[in-house]
Specification:
Layout lengths: L2 H15 L4 H12 L6 H6 L4 H4 L7 H14 L9 H19 L4 H4 L7 H24 L7
């Protein structure tokens, strides 16, 4: 792992510690520490994803936010700009790598503790840190960002 990816992981962890949920922490760290353009509205859109969709423990909110960040650099503004055939494979590849690395895409599998407990906070800080570094490495590998 490079110094940059480690730093991005720590930034995500710090954003989580500062009161952001897991999805917000990913988006906030990448919008403030890289040159990826993510505006306030996009940040706001990720608020409901924490806790696996509002504590439903379904799709990992951090994973959803990773796909948002990837879409910020690989997505489109209209159907004429880019084919979904160029976009979907990158998102699927990240998803598949995420599951291989972390064992699941489900919040309930990744975070077995009661929300808002000490165990939950410790687990999620460590997890979002690792996910942030994992996303940074993926973005660099795909040449979506340069190590800074």
């Amino acid at each position: 792992m490079s110094e940059f990816t480690e730093r991005m992981g720590a930034e995500v962890g710090n954003c989580f510690k500062a009161g952001n949920n897991c999805a917000e922490a990913i988006v906030q760290a990448f919008r403030t520490n890289t040159e990826i353009k993510i505006d306030d509205n996009a940040y706001r859109l990720c608020s409901g994803f924490g806790g696996g969709m509002g504590h439903a423990r379904d799709l990992c909110g951090a994973l959803a936010a990773c796909i948002m960040v990837i879409s910020a650099v690989n997505g489109r503004n209209n159907p004429e700009e880019k084919s979904l055939k160029e976009i979907y494979p990158v998102s699927k590849e990240f998803h598949d790598r995420f599951v291989a690395e972390f064992g699941s895409s489900s919040c309930g599998d990744l975070m077995p503790y009661e929300f808002n407990t000490r165990e939950h906070m410790i687990n999620c800080i460590k997890l979002v840190n690792k996910i942030g570094a994992f996303l940074a490495a993926f973005l660099v590998e795909k040449n979506f960002i340069k190590e800074q």
